[in-house]
Amino acid sequence: MGTAVRRSTSFLLSVAAVLLVVPRYDGAERLPTIRDRPMVTANPYVPAGGWPDRIGALAPVGGLTLSSSDPAFGGFSALALHDGRAHLLSDGGNLVTLALRGGTVREPRGHVLRQGPGVGWDRRDRDSESLTLDPRTGHAWVGYETHNQIWRYAPGYARAERHSAPAAMRRWEPNLGAESLVRLRDGAFLTFAERKPNRRTRHGLLFTGDPTVPGAKPIRFLFQPPNRYDPSDAAELPDGDLLVLTRRFQYPFRFTAKLVRISRADIQPNAVVSGKTVATLAPPVLGENAEGLAITQERGETMVWIVTDNDAMVLRPTYLLKLRWPRSEREK
């Protein structure tokens, strides 16, 4: 093989390798839709060197890697848990629910959000980035990042019931909007923008009720995440405070994440809220794009769940982690 041919072959292989691991951000990309019953494979995940006893304030319980031959599986940007099932929402309007049983997953089901802010199936039409559920009724709310809209869906995602484009979100940057959405136990809703208004702070809104109700007016505040980190999801702790998942991407290909606790009492009109970092996820424990967060109660214990977004790259599995918030740490 000649030198020129070898160089050409090496270049093409390098390009192919990059395309397999680097996220695709073309907004015009045609998105696949998930099957009704996708085949999902779950394997135990143990980081290199094993699990540490603690990750900051949290104690690891375990983890899974999830994969599927379905081309629409993955890219999960939000996580919710309801009635023993994990709800994994992709950034393309596809949703997978799984029954969790003793470290295994069963009965995977696929759902497609066929009604949304766009009329097609390009990424810009279906940029679903955040999800929250009403545990009593099963209603779901989805935040669409590109359009800066919030949609409410009937139980089981059967249909869209109503939606809104809150005036307070209209100036949020396209593709950097409602990255987080959480329904609080008192019926309030909280959302964060991924970026802006500047390098150090992010837009935050607290709705006193359903944000899709006409005329809903939120409290505006600013969230100051750890330096160079962006909020990717949030969940409510048992005492009413908020746990915010933040993540950072560094070239050439490295992710880290920080969990930040903020006091609900600190969320006031025009306040700047920073909170306290309670855990950092970094290699070798996790070096992936942590985007979804949920909190559950199990026999009086608080469990923190995190799901990663593989950016639809076939060589990157989806990680689902479970960590325990020790009672001694919760009381600090």
TrEMBL record:
<dbReference type="InterPro" id="IPR014567">
    <property type="entry name" value="UCP031900"/>
</dbReference>
<feature type="domain" description="Phytase-like">
    <location>
        <begin position="72"/>
        <end position="311"/>
    </location>
</feature>
<dbReference type="Pfam" id="PF13449">
    <property type="entry name" value="Phytase-like"/>
</dbReference>
<feature type="region of interest" description="Disordered">
    <location>
        <begin position="109"/>
        <end position="130"/>
    </location>
</feature>
<protein>
    <submittedName>
        <fullName>Esterase-like activity of phytase family protein</fullName>
    </submittedName>
</protein>
<dbReference type="InterPro" id="IPR027372">
    <property type="entry name" value="Phytase-like_dom"/>
</dbReference>
